[in-house]
Amino acid sequence: MRPTFRVLLGAMALLLTASASLAHHSVTGQFDPTQSLTLTGVIVKVDWINPHVYLFLDVTTQDGTVETWSLASAPTAMMRRAGLTKESVQGAPGEVVTIQGIPARDETKRLAWIYTITYADGRSVRLSQDRK
């Protein structure tokens, strides 16, 4: 193979893998930063897994129905670097929290990305940056 062809082939492979990687990790690919939401409820479960930590929040609607929301956040490594653990994010059992975030772009019911959790004692934890 000629060196020019190898360089061109290598550059094409790099571009293809880079674009796939960026698409996979794009928050705005799955969630709509032009919208916002605020949810109040109880964190009932934390999945401390990669590629993203998920919180499950039981939210009581105005008619008394309880809906469980699935809330995505940063990867575990980023959470640990911020000084957070599964237990610190979970909060006290039964503690009511307020979540600020953005809904799923495809209007998937009860799926959102978390920006901030505010706990009953007033403590607030920013899990990701607002992209507005």
Commentary on this structure:
With 132 residues, the chain is an alpha+beta fold. It folds into two domains: 1-26; 31-126, Nucleic acid-binding proteins (OB fold (Dihydrolipoamide Acetyltransferase, E2P), Beta Barrel), CATH 2.40.50. It has four helices and six strands. The chain has a five-stranded mixed beta barrel. The N and C termini lie far apart (48 Å).
What Rg is obtained from the alpha carbons, in whole angstroms? 19 Å
- H/E topology pattern: HHEEEHHEEE
Looking at the structure, the CATH topology of the largest domain is: OB fold (Dihydrolipoamide Acetyltransferase, E2P)
Spell out the CATH superfamily of the largest domain.
Answer: Nucleic acid-binding proteins
State mean pLDDT (0 to 100 scale).
Answer: 82
Strand neighbour order, sheet with most strands = 1-2-3-5-4
User: If classified by CATH, what would the architecture of the largest domain be?
Assistant: Beta Barrel
Tally of alpha and pi helices: 4
Category by helix and strand content: alpha+beta
Counted beta strands: 6
What's the story with the biggest beta sheet?
Answer: 5 strands, mixed, barrel
* Spans where pLDDT lies below 50 across 5 or more residues: 11-24
Q: Span from first to last CA?
A: 48 Å
How many domains? The number is 2
Shape: globular
Strand content: 25-35%
